[in-house]
Design a protein that fits this description.
Elements lengths: L1 E7 L7 H13 L4 E8 L2 H6 L8 E8 L12 H19 L15 H21 L3 H4 L2 H12 L5 H4 L3 H14 L22 E4 L7 H10 L3 E5 L3 H7 L14 H4 L2 H21 L2 E4 L2 H9 L20 H5 L5 E8 L8 H14 L4 E5 L4 H18 L15 E4 L9 H6 L1 E6 L8 H8 L3 E5 L4 H5 L4 E3 L4 H12 L2 H18 L2 H18 L5 E2 L28 E2 L25
Parallel strand pairs: 1-2, 1-4, 2-3, 4-5, 5-6, 7-8, 7-10, 8-9, 10-11, 11-12
Antiparallel strand pairs: 13-14
Length: about 575
């Protein structure tokens, strides 16, 4: 089977958890062939280079989203008219303020509005393929004037009607950047095998820009699309859409980016795109129930959703999980990226309450700051810790020692991540915003009892094997930690149950098995595109996966010939996959 793996800002580049997950998936499915179509976010990412690719990756094609030179395409009169019609329909769909469709899921766009956006999007894609690009047209004065007419039209949203020239320019710039994948040469018609027309399945490793090429492959070639979201891109956009230069991610004036019109129109675009991705995808695999609820709210069909937990490497935590006697019974550990969303301030106040009950307890905060904001937050937390806990000394001639320490992985006290978790009897998570809590799963692999705040997918992940308290409640956090510190037998029971749960649900092997089964099911249900008949027209119909094998047993007569034999049919049969229903246990 030939898989077109669509990535954005991750694999095959040396960056992030998403790239690591893709690498594990590709290596684990060695019986398939992978073509990687990578959207690059930044120049420094490309400079970092690629990971070492396994032999099953036959080709990597890269497109730069962070820069786009004018394509130099000069549209004729007919092409300009096509652009004006399609772009006008697209921006009109963004400006409309129609009420939700009562027959659809909550938050879904009305059907007519969704169709308008989809038809306009595919119209622009067809124009780009016919003319050789869209960059110049999207940057033209005609595009800005078309956007302005849509904003001033009757029925437009109030923020759109109030948009001034700087806001219109900012929105047009964002749309140009977001629609750059439409101008790629990945959608050729010659069937030469260099584009997405040659793959059996497109697997988008996130929503948003990464899924856009998959949408076009679905539109042009009827290639089935699988979308995996471990962090819902639309949710990320909403959370980061506050005032400031980073809210929209493009290089316009900060004042324009913070305007209500810009935020409203950009949010409308990403919402419409997410709805179309969910509508056209053959299957959507959220990483947890929290993400699944977001997808349903944004219009995803519940019948298409299959929860597949992200696979994590358990072997590096095996030694710690097998030996619990190394933990200091008077130490709490927090591990993660230092940033405001982790709410270390509440953790420090909770620790102050805890020390009144257990004065021997120590708190180890292990993690590096996330960017400039994280660096400033780390400095604030250190100042707060010094104020709450003045250095303590055993006597008048001893040096004082603060019960709170700030460390990073690789230091003398925590050389590895596993040793950081091994240092404490209880692992604490104090976040106010969380998607899938990777650090919590790592603590579970280590067999540690945990105290966590009830955010994101925490309750789903922990499954009753740890204590959960409300966020921003230092007193509740302190009481839960005291309860575990005073009861070593309970800590041991919870830790053992947590480790068993993690090994059952969150390993790399479980993740790979689930996707292998989904791949086979989607290709089995896809239209037959590899067979050519005498009349030259493909005849799509649902077939079992075995129909892709060469031979005459399928019932097709001798006139039917395969353009190419599937790579996965040449070798021995793959491992027997687990039923996909097993992944639906993901509640």
């Amino acid at each position: 089977m030939r898989i077109g793996l669509l990535t954005e800002g991750g694999y095959p580049y040396l960056s992030g958890d998403a790239g690591l997950w893709c690498d594990r998936l590709v290596r684990g499915l060695g019986q398939h062939e992978f073509d990687v179509y990578a959207l690059s976010r930044a120049e420094h990412q490309e400079a970092a280079g690629w990971v070492e690719l396994p032999p099953q990756v036959s080709r990597v094609r890269t497109a730069r989203l962070w820069t786009a030179e004018d394509d130099g395409v000069a549209y004729g009169r007919r092409a300009r008219r096509r652009f004006a019609e399609s772009y006008g329909e697209l921006v009109t769909a963004l400006c409309e303020g129609d009420p939700p469709d009562p027959a659809g899921p909550p938050g879904a766009a009305p059907t007519a509005q969704a169709d308008r956006f989809a038809n306009a999007l595919y119209g622009l894609a067809e124009l780009a393929r016919d003319e050789g690009g869209l960059v110049g047209a999207l940057r033209s004065e005609n595009a800005v004037r078309t956007l302005e007419r849509a904003c001033r039209a009757p029925g437009a949203l109030r923020p759109a009607r109030e948009a001034r020239v700087p806001e219109l320019l900012a929105v047009a710039a964002h749309l140009e950047r977001a629609l750059r994948p439409l101008s790629l040469d990945w959608y050729g018609e010659d069937g030469g095998g260099d584009g997405l027309d040659a793959v059996d399945l497109c697997h988008a490793t996130s929503g948003g820009a990464a899924a856009l090429p998959g949408l076009l492959a679905r539109h042009f070639f009827d290639v089935p699309l699988l979308v995996t979201e471990y962090g819902v891109r639309l949710r990320t956009h909403y959370l980061s859409s506050g005032p400031g230069p980073s809210s929209t991610g493009f290089g316009s004036a900060p004042a324009a980016e913070a305007a209500p019109a810009v935020r409203a129109l950009v949010a409308a675009f990403h919402g419409r795109l997410a709805a179309e991705v969910y509508r056209q995808a053959a299957c959507v695999t959220p990483g947890n129930t929290h993400a699944r609820r977001w997808q349903e709210r944004c219009g995803a069909d519940r019948a298409k959703l299959r929860t597949v937990y992200p696979g994590m490497e358990a072997s590096r935590f095996a030694e710690v999980g097998d030996s619990l006697d190394t933990a200091d019974p008077h130490t709490l550990v927090w591990v993660g990226r230092v940033e405001p969303a982790k709410d270390l301030v509440s953790l420090l106040h909770a620790f102050a309450e805890l020390r009144k009950e257990e004065p021997r307890t120590r708190l180890r905060i292990v993690g590096a700051p996330a960017g400039a904001e994280g660096q400033a937050y780390l400095g604030h937390c250190k100042v707060l810790a010094a104020q709450l806990f003045p250095d303590e000394a055993d006597g008048p001639h001893a040096v004082g020692d603060n019960p709170v320490s700030f460390e990073e992985i690789g230091g003398p006290e925590a050389p590895t991540l596993a040793e950081a978790y091994a240092a404490g009897a209880v692992v604490v998570l104090s976040s106010v915003v969380e998607g899938f809590p990777v650090g919590l799963v790592e603590a579970m692999f280590c067999g540690r009892a945990t105290v966590s705040t009830d955010v994101g997918a925490v309750v789903e992940v922990i499954g009753g094997t740890g204590l959960v308290v409300p966020p921003r409640n230092p007193r509740a956090l302190a009481e839960a930690c005291v309860a575990l510190l005073r009861d070593p037998e309970r800590r041991a029971r919870l830790g053992a149950a947590a480790r068993a749960r993690a090994l059952e649900l969150f390993t790399v092997e479980q993740n790979i098995t689930a996707f292998h089964g989904i791949y086979l099911e989607l290709v089995a249900q896809a239209p037959v595109r590899r067979f050519i008949f005498d009349d030259g027209d493909p005849r799509p119909f649902a077939v079992p996966a075995e129909a892709c094998l060469p031979g005459h047993w399928t019932g097709l007569d001798a006139r039917v010939a395969s353009r190419r034999g599937p790579g996965w049919a040449a070798g021995p049969p793959p491992r027997d996959p687990s039923p996909i229903a097993a992944t639906e246990g993901a509640r």
